[in-house]
Amino acid sequence: MRADAQRNRDRIVEVARGFFRAKGFDAVSMDEVAKGAGVGPGTLYRHFPTKESLYDAILESWAEKVNAAVDRALALDASARVRLLTWLTDYSAMLTEHKGAAARITAALGDPGSPFAAKCQTYLRANQRLIDGLDSALRPGVEAMQISRLVGGVAAVVDTSELPADSVAPMLAIVADGLLAP
Amino acid sequence: MRADAQRNRDRIVEVARGFFRAKGFDAVSMDEVAKGAGVGPGTLYRHFPTKESLYDAILESWAEKVNAAVDRALALDASARVRLLTWLTDYSAMLTEHKGAAARITAALGDPGSPFAAKCQTYLRANQRLIDGLDSALRPGVEAMQISRLVGGVAAVVDTSELPADSVAPMLAIVADGLLAP
DNA sequence: AACTATACGGAGATACTCTCCGTTTAGCAA
DNA sequence: TTGCTAAACGGAGAGTATCTCCGTATAGTT
Fold it and tell me: What's the whole-model pTM score?
């Protein structure tokens, strides 16, 4: 990649991250990002063919954060319930970090063609590691995809309804108790 | 209302119901509805100032169906778990009847200004009746709003991911077990 | 039959994603 | 330094949404 192209790409990602964090996915237009980065719309679309692929680029660093969170939860010296709830809470918080993202990422969970496919794999693997780690404490037959969708659904509702962050706790508690072995 | 206006309104609702059912909320444009009903866009917007208010008009008959479903579930001669699961399944099915509706209705649950406010009240009251009916079988402190959001979230994920209908069952089972008293 | 309040409907304002293509420039080679 | 070419740029605009304005037509009444 040519040096000017790399510079523009970096600046676009940086500007877009700020905009998305401040206003949410839907409320940010591509023209706005282009203008903010000092490039034309054509340049923006050369680097990121869709708005979602731009968003995907912003989430690059999430993979590490997700893996760190599941490690931290599993390593806790606490009951399975507390460890599970810790992870679900962190996971949900990461999903709602950018407004509008939770619903999109969760909807892409089963779609290998989505621009978010790599992120979804990361989430699924994290939940699989949780299942392996908590082992027999969970109800038999529970799948990583189910956990991902359940928590993604709750996070999406909290996000789109613009609820206070603490309203997610009782709902995650219900999900966690449902996930634990009877 | 003048007779011609009433006729147009009825025809718009009828045409729109068919379109929404066939293609889902997002994939139907207002121009398309207007054309299908043989009126101009101006006429359509005179009757329904937003696309969501048009959608709300289509859901008129849902209130009865929701109440009938919760009655039916509560009247079952079965365990609290089965009755709860029956209701959650019916409720989820009603939410996903039109593609794109579950997420919108669920997002509007806490917003009195939404065009869906009346429908949301119906849902909330139905879940409250469920809580009253199942009484001590449920975990203490659970609220109708929480059930509505949990099931709405699951339904929205299933809807937007276009999953097969039976994939909702294991997730609702987890939610149901989480809702039952420990 | 005339009158008026109401309804109609289409052109168009606005906003958005995304594309096409003529112009400019970075990086390299002689 | 100069010239060349592949790559990148950027803006006009295509296409598609929702929703509005306002001149025209008509239903229902006097």
Answer: 0.89
